[in-house]
Amino acid sequence: MQSFWKSGNAFIWLTGLTAGIGLLMIGGLVLLILVNGLGIFWPAPLEELTLKDGSKVLGEIWNREKIPDADTEQPATRVRMKIGNRDFYGLDFRWMNETDIAARRHPDSAFVLERQAWGNFFGYATELSLSGEAVAKGATQTAAALAKPLTEGGRLAAQINHLEKEVIGDINYEIEQRRLAIRGLSLRDGANIDASKEEQRLQGEIAALQEEYNKNEKQLEKLREQGSAYQLTLQTVDGRTKTISLLEIVRAFQPNQMSWLDKAGLYLSRTWEFFASEPREANMEGGVFPAIFGTVMMVLIMSIAVVPLGVLTAIYMREYAKQGPFVRTLRIAVNNLAGVPSIVFGIFGLGFFVYAIGGSIDKFFYPEALPTPTFGTGGILWAALTLALLTVPVVIVTTEEGLAAVPGALREGSLALGATKFETLWRVLIPSASPAILTGLILAMARAAGEVAPLMITGVVKLAPSLPLDGHFPYLHLERKFMHLGFHIYDVGFQSPNVEASLPMVYATTLLLILIVLVLNLTAILLRNRLRRRFAAGQF
Q: Helix %, strand %, coil % for the chain, to 5?
């Protein structure tokens, strides 16, 4: 035993055990997210429960758990059922003891309606009407006649959304730009004759745009009337009736009648909606495309800002600065910056970037928009620059280490051949240190993609009305607020009106964020490995 401890085998076993525990923890976390995140889009069967008191409940069984029972030695079991119909019941879930259940059945005619508002509706279709006249009655006839009107309703909903968000939204944008231009003329030129002519021209353009706006508004009302012509009447399991316009329905299906292939198709449809559409119902349903776009764009802008800042700082500290107390103090400060809480960087970004720089930009370049700020409020640019400051110590440290690892023979050989120090730095040292620079960038992107606290005060919002990238000049609007997957997880998991019902969305968004970080990191890692192989082979 004494020789065992002296040989160091105990330390080997200890380190191996620690590494195994770490891998198990990481694997368990990933497995938990995968199981809960990938399964939420699969359609669950509807079950109708008849209780001993004669009441009935229809919904999806989510989970079972054992509860202690004082009257028996065996623990009792209760089930949690998603009952939907929030507009009737005011809640999404209900717990019931299995001892109170008298009968169970899986009705084939039961419908699941995913709606634009109020969540899912569970019930039985009784009538489909067009302009007040019944088209089909009864569950069987209504289900058979519903497919074509649902397709028509989806087409009309897409047209309405296009008209509202793009056509009318673009007109509003153009009107606002001309209104600001008129105000700018009054601030700069006063009663100048040319300014008056320009103002008249802008007023004429506003009048033409307003006429176009009114025309599209009438078309929008017409489309809404067409979409409201079809009405679907449903009945809950307890006898209540609900009439729903087909424009309010995202999709309708009968899960108990669906084959495995039908369920797979619905799963893919829901997954695509999650990736490609906007959120609805207080972010608890729908998609997360604006959050995906905002997260990726913020990371890219942050990367563009942090790499030059970190690399140039590291080059100065390693290659040009005289090594002494000042440089040592600077290195200590850089290392300490890496440990500063991220919210502190957020406060700095708010005060320096948003209020100081952004407020100055508004004062000198956008006075016509004041007191409404343009750059003097949170935006994706300020959020990205704040995260660049947060992650720049990592890039500085890794770049310095990369420059220090370049063999001295390469420096001496370059200088001996007549190259200047700058040419040696540009053509030899930086290319050789590029794998280390990319390592710093990988670590910076991984941290920036998951940060939330600084973003909450520098530009991220619950729901962004428009993306930072659109068809209006200058196309990339760095002053706009944006959505972020990390904040979306926080908002849905802790700030939504129904946290219990939104928990599956939290897992799905978390899985998506992990995948995005993984893709970004893998891209940088592949590029880094390629550079390593190139310079290891001496191919400069």
A: 65, 15, 20
- For residue 1, what pLDDT band results from cuts at 50, 70 and 90? low
56, 46 contact by CB (below 8 A): no
**Which residues lie below 8 Å from residue 49, measured CB to CB, with a gap of 6+?**
56, 57, 58, 81, 96, 101, 103, 104
Residue 163's pLDDT is: 92
Q: Give dist(CA 235, CA 243) in Å, integer.
A: 9
Residue 540 is predicted with a pLDDT of 44
- As a whole number of angstroms, the distance between CA 290 and CA 465 comes to 9
Which of the following CATH numbers is that of domain 46-86+93-106: 3.30.70, 2.40.50, 2.30.30, 3.40.50? 2.30.30
Give residues with Cβ within 8 angstroms of 448, minimum separation 6.
298, 299, 302, 387, 390, 391
SS3 of residue 295 by DSSP:
helix
| Interatomic CA distance for residues 290 and 512, integer angstroms | 13
Q: Which CATH number fits domain 289-536: 3.30.70.1130, 1.10.3720.10, 1.20.1250.20, 2.30.110.10?
A: 1.10.3720.10
| 171 vs 278: CA distance, rounded Å | 21
CA–CA dist 498, 82 (Å, integer):
12
Given a cut of 90, whether residue 122 has pLDDT beyond it is yes
Give 353-389 as a 3 state SS string: HHHHHHHHHHHHHCHHHCCCCCCCCCCHHHHHHHHHH
Per domain, the residue ranges of the chain are 46-86+93-106, 147-272, 289-536
Give the model's pLDDT for residue 138: 83
Predicted TM-score of the model (pTM): 0.90
Quick one: how many helices (H) and strands (E) in the chain?
Answer: 18, 13
**What one-character-per-residue DSSP string does 246-262 give?**
GGGEEEEE-GGG--HHH
Q: Is the dihedral of CA 241, 244, 248, 249 positive or negative?
A: positive
Beta carbons within 10 angstroms of residue 226's beta carbon: 15
Sequence letter at residue 533: R
Positions of E strands within 119-262? 120-130, 133-137, 230-235, 241-245, 249-253
Query: 303 Cβ partners below 8 Å, 6+ apart?
Result: 441, 444, 445
What is the rounded CA–CA span in Å between residue 171 and residue 174?
A: 5
Closest by CA to 255, choosing from 107, 90, 382, is 107
Distances (CA, A) of 264 to 216, 268, 524: 39, 6, 34
What does the pLDDT look like over 83-100, one tens digit per residue?
A: 989 889 888 889 988 888
